[in-house]
Amino acid sequence: MKANCWYGTHDVRVETVPDPTILNPRDAIVKITSTAICGSDLHLYDGYIPTMQKGDILGHEFMGEVVEVGPAVKNLKLGDRVVVPFPIACGNCFFCQRELFSLCENSNPNALLAEKLWGHSPCGIFGYSHMLGGYAGGQAEYARVPFADVGPIKIPDGIDDEKVLFLSDIFPTGYMAAEACDIKPGDIIAVWGCGPVAQFAIKSALLLGAERVIAIDRFPERLRMARQQGAETLNYEHVDVLEALAELTGGRGPDACIDAVGMESHSAGMLGAYDKVKQILLLETDRPQPLRQAIMACRNGGTVSIPGVYGGFVDKIPFGSIMNRSITIKTGQTHVHRYLKPLLQRIIDGQIDPSFVITHRMMLRDAPEGFAKFRNKEDGCIKVVMKPS
Amino acid sequence: MATRDVLQTEMRPGVARAATGRRRAHEGGKLADALAWFSVGLGAAEIFAPEAVCKAIGAPRRPMLMRLMGLREMAAGVGILKNPQKANWLWARVGGDILDLALLAAASQSKRAKPGRVSAALAAVAGVTVLDVVCAQQFETRIGSAVHSTASTIVNRRPEECYRYWRDIEKLPAFLQHLRSVRVTGERRSHWIAKGPVGKDISWDAEITEDIPNERIVWRSLEGSEIRNSGSVQFQPARRGENTIVRVRMNYELPTRAGRILAGKLLGRDPGLRIRKDLLRFKQILETGEIATTEGQPAGRPSSTTMLDRMARI
Questions:
Q1: What is the pTM of this model?
Q2: Among A25, A34, A256, B297, whose CB has the most other CB atoms within 10 angstroms?
Q3: Which residue of A has its CA nearest to B313?
Q4: Is the ipTM of this complex over 0.85?
């Protein structure tokens, strides 16, 4: 089959590789009908995530048709149309039982690697480095899905792929980030970043009852899309964000702040230069500029919700601001399984059509071009969806 | 309950000191400490009098490089002195020695070198390298004539279930990866076959000496076994009895040097790590019915997994 494989920084290629097979009794094989490139894939593409190996198949946002099931999978039958969550979860461990699916103790065969960097290992993830299991991903024609009796959600007939594909990752991610803000009537939420996850965070925050959502970015097409979702926007190249947020909230600050940017932020100014220099010297691995702003801007007792991906260590975090003002930090890899049913229902009920975020559609064979366009934000690129054939 | 003596002898996964091996350990420890103090002294000289050291060993004057070497030397020395798990720091010394040998060899090519002194320095470093390797290896073979390892994991199942699965000892090879098979030969007796290091399997007979249902199983090899060993597993209730902390201790005693090498190969460089991986497999079998794997999956390279996976995976 054809699959998009990683070979180094800025080097992805669509190669012919063997088809996946059932390896464990609870596996299923899915023939992929739609797959997407995620913002977090760019961290792999830009070489920021350690333990990638040449030849790794990328992709963790995919859906398709079940074509084979292992002997222990009873809930799926051949021909079922499913969306597959990006975290792999067993359903039986301490964390899965508490709906903390991205913390599954049993799905990462290389857990001891992640432990070295992070103290303990989270779950295994499709196509996201060997530290997280080294699983072959879904930017391919077929994928092997472990614990298929737990993850995949069946999609009813009559709903387009594009409407449900993002249940695999970015819609639940934005939703979980907004839910973490514990939104009360009257709340003002600020969102750093206007990428796809942020777009869903904005929409979710409004669905969850926020009075105002303020979205921050510098790319006009992304700010425009955020306004279409109902946000008010700030272009940080034109205004001082902290001043503007103070002005908009009468000095108190937003009730919650969402960092939907993560480790590869575009960091301007002196602190940004500091981050860049430290990264080159390998003294800092991530660039947390939006995170610093989110912390400082947040009102006393508010929540900083972080769906943005971080990998290693950040420097100069205003922890004094966090401690002295009772700030709550909520973060984590999305517990997608928890949100599949309720969010699918919202889609069916017409409350949201997630396909709004798609700007580019192409074939899997054009994946290298898709990555480049997405990374450089060329051509107004916000989200790339690919079809294998 | 078994808790009190577990806590007394509970060690971090990895090396525990054996009573029989204590004298050997002490000797090995003395050599390690001597090398460590040598490192500290040498490091200090390299940091505070770099030019004098350069002159003494006949290398070109490079005070900054010498100071960096001094820092490294000191760090290795301090690491050995402070750290009871000396093996890694001792191997760090060996790494440093190899670096020194390389630098000296390069120095001897330089026009500004004094050949006689560089040769003497090379010989001295080579001698120290040998000592370091010997010392590191002694710690590697886990001090004297016994290999102990211990590990624990927490399983999301009640102690009864964990005990029941373990007590069915013919199932042990499913998660104790160094075993090929276990066959019950009597009420408490069994025949064990382990995968040998060079293709030839090793076997022995064992008996269960203690069997407290839902709490503890202790076994040992019978007299005349090629590789004397014993082990125990404890099932401690956790989270109000809904979970179990499973603690395993394995001991391999080998009177001969050949036996020690055998155990080393059988158990690998870090027996504690291997036992821990075995326990993670046990946990996965009990909780999910399978062992997570990526072996055999597709990839854009000749092998489905890489050496990184082979090293890391359970």
A1: 0.80
A2: A256
A3: A110
A4: yes
